[in-house]
Amino acid sequence: MIARVNICLPLYQPWRQLQHEVLNFDAEMVFWSCLFFLWLRVSSANAGEWSAKMPESVVGLSGSCVLIPCTFSYPANGKTYTEFTGIWYHEYSTVVYHTDTSKIIDSFKGRTSLIGDLHQNNCSLNISSLSNSDAGSFVFRIEIKDLNKYSYGEKVSISVKETPENPTVSVEEEVTSGKPVNATCAVSHSCPSDLPRVTWSHGGKQSSTSQPQNHGQWKLTYYSLTFTPSREDHNKLLICSAEFNGKNVTGHKTLKVKYPPYNVSVVTKPSVKENDSVELSCSSDSNPPANSYQWFSLNGTMLAKSPTYKLERVSRHTEAISCTAFNTEGKNCSGPQKMNVLYPPYNVSVVTKHSVKENDSVELSCSSDSNPPANSYQWFSLNGTMLAKSPTYKLERVSRHTEAISCTAFNTEGKNSSGPRKLNILYPPEIKSESSCMSKILTVCVCIVDSNPPSEVKWFGPDSSKSFSSTSIKQNESLTIFTLQGWLGFPETILCFANNSLGSSSLTLEAPQNGLIYIVVASAFAVVLVCILMCVVRRHCRNRAVQQTVMKNKQTQMKTTQHKLDLENKEEERSDGGFYTNSHVYVNSVGDKRLLSSDRALEDEVVYANT
């Protein structure tokens, strides 16, 4: 043993210096390091079935953990061993893991753990809170009670990365709007016990699965997202973000979403002059692009099947037009598009209050239908004199005699004028001096009233408690003619009283008395009386003639009946004279009674007819 130590000491002079400068190792650690080198020198001759499998290198992320996968074998020769001591060294000398934790160097205490089970030949080591100083080579040593102790010659080199790898996003090349789709985000990491926090830029249902890669050095965790894309997602990035202890990395994929036409619109010039032609085109947002189009009028009539449509001689009355765009995913329609047709002023008119009181002021405005709107105006009197150049014009102290006014509107396309506008001036009644009464056959009084609004008129005699209603009323613009007619008893003076909502006025008229009217009335009365008497006489004569005609007819009938009776009596006398006589007398007597009764009935009929 002494010889071995002498041989070992020269080899470990650098390590002793390192002990004093950096690690301050104790003498026991140096001794074990010396033994480690001695065993390595004889490992090729004495290893036999001693072997270990581990990757040549492992990459870990700074601040995370790293896993060194490791398996080992030893010459059991059919025997079972139960006590194992596993030791990991950093740079061949620093104990980073030991079954006896007191032997672990301070800088690795609490950061290393044996993940594998030595009884199952698993020597995998986990190092947490990885830092740049942990980089370097690591070797494994096994000590088996009742068998041997062996340091394996295989080593693994750990490198430390400051930045994690970017995730890899996978999704279908083309997806369809409204149909669910699945995307995955593959995240590489070295520490299964400390997985990164993964987030997606799109909402949806998330899940994750892990699987080892690269001989177990790294694990790939697949984070899945199931979502329903929309047209707004087209050409947008689907981003997967992974956070490793405050360090963020991202991966992305550009989404290609198929969807039917949206935002369909009719595109044309901003404006077109009336009577010009214009070409319209149908625009839409769709993927794939629209491949067919249809054009429709406002009432739904199809006009064309083409990407563009030409309108000839447009006017301000041209109806709105719409288009429909189609692609493989569906169709959609634009709203009706009204052309912006430029035209000069039309329907020019003077606009003001419905009415204005006399002596008040009033403002007039000039209205027109034009595109673009009128930008200048002129005002004119009825004789053509220009009054102002402004959109409005103010008239001071208007009266019923104020003349009509017109305006002219101008825009970039031309000009047009209104018709003369007469103001509706309100004023109280004024009874004209032409009002008067005259008498000929009748007495006629006329009251002429000028007012706005029209007036009501009442007539009063000397007794003001009694009023008369007009016989006739005639309207002529602001003038109203009220007429009163009278016969006998017409008063010598009569008052015409006119009023409206603004005031009242009255005028007393003299009614001239004329004696001719009494003569005319008496003559008319006599004529009427004579006519009545003549009618009575004529009717009486007509009734007497009818009565005489009826009496003559009755007498003729009686004579014929008597003659027949006489003939019958003669025949009976021949056969039985006495009975015949009696019968004749009886018959005569009966016949007289019938005659008398018939005469009375006739008289009654005549009297009834007369009545």
Automatic annotation (TrEMBL):
InterPro entries membership: CD80_C2-set, Ig-like_dom, Ig-like_dom_sf, Ig-like_fold, Ig_sub, Ig_V-set, SIGLEC
Membrane topology field: Single-pass membrane protein
Transmembrane segments: 515-537
GO cellular component: plasma membrane
UniProt KW keywords: Cell adhesion, Disulfide bond, Lectin, Membrane, Transmembrane, Transmembrane helix
Cellular location(s): Membrane
UniProt-listed GO biological process terms: cell adhesion
UniProt-recorded Gene Ontology molecular function terms: carbohydrate binding; sialic acid binding
Compositionally biased spans, kind Basic and acidic residues: 563-576
Ranges where the Ig-like domain occurs: 167-250, 260-334, 344-424
Region (Disordered): 555-576
Pfam families hit by this protein: C2-set_2, V-set
Family: Belongs to the immunoglobulin superfamily. SIGLEC (sialic acid binding Ig-like lectin) family.
The protein, known as: Myelin-associated glycoprotein-like isoform X2
Organism field: Carassius auratus (Goldfish)
